[in-house]
Amino acid sequence: MKRLKRQMKMTAAVTALMVSLSLASCNQDTTWTYRTEDGAYEVTSGMYVGMSISAYNSGYSQTDVDTSQPLYDQQIGSVDALTWVQQEVDNLAKKYLAVETKFEEYGLSFTEEEQSYIDSYIEYYWNYLGSSYEDEGCGQESYTKLMTNSFKESQLFYHIYGEGGEREVTEEELRDLFNQQYAHVNIFDVDCSDDEGNPLEGHELEIVEERVANLIERLDNGEDFETVKADYEAEVEAEQAAEEESASSDISSDETSSEESSAAESSASSEESSAVSEDTSSSASSETSEVSEDASSAESSSASEETASSETSEESSSSDTSSDTETDTDTSVYINTDTTSYPEELVTLLMDASAGEYGSWNDEDGTIYVWVRLENDDTGFETYRDTILQNEKWEEYTQLEQDWINGMTFVQNDAAIRKHNPKNLE
What we know:
Number of strands: 9
Distance between the termini: 53 Å
Number of helices: 12
Radius of gyration: 38 Å
Structural class: alpha+beta
Strand order of the largest sheet: 6-5-8-7
């Protein structure tokens, strides 16, 4: 009996504790997931969901992940995909808080123009992606905070590594990298393939190679590359227009011949039928046929005159195009070793060439490239300056961010994290 009473007391105590914990759980605030120790910054539950979506999408971009299969049924590296996503979200949340903290510590802010650009940028992408984020529990306010944080991260990077920064990369260093990594070139291609796309051979190829040799000779004689390029492209355009007109004329001629043949057959049939009973009618039909032939001959002569006139006009137009070509436009481009718009061997050739060098290169797949290497200029440097800095220092910066994270203390709301677990995305 005493044992039973003790068991009843223990059961009552456990029940009371469970009720207490349940009530505590129900009353716990799950609107936030992570906070800085001083409570100055926090990751709301909506933001946590947004980070989960980013991590989930990032998981699908990892090596050896099959995008046709559910992500959480797979491995990423040495861990299951769900664990990988959870770890990634944890890191994103802490990085968010570190960036917010450091942005304030450095006294950074956005100008009105920058803020206006950020607002427009975020609004554009929210209009495009907003419904999918809202469906999972990330509202526009949360999305805006996440995106703004990305801009803050970028500004922190340039504040630290840009001009006057504590880890400044000097302009001289950046220019050296620019000249090592980028080549200023101008290129145009000469087609040497047949109608089916196969490379030309024999005499047909020799004709194209002779044309290319003439283009190179013009460059040898000191003509501007832009002029040579523009003239060639104008010639090709005129040739294509002439071919299209010729093809159209052939189709029209075939249709006319078919109509005349049909009319002649009908006339012949009529003549045979009439010849049985009326010789005079046959004679009249013959005279009509002769008149028709004369008219047809006149039409053919007129068409020939029009064609000759058209050809003369085209030659004149082609000549005018060549002489009136404008060369004040700049069609040059910058390439680097990662450029994929041209064959790798050609890119290597251009990267190794010196300013002022020019020539041609046969890809042997039906294309000959005519090229010139130009001086790298200030416009190109300013265009690629930020890209070069990021490529050179972003990895170092991400380690700096990790150092910030390691040096901070965060408050984690486990109840909210359980409630908004990334596993809910599948």
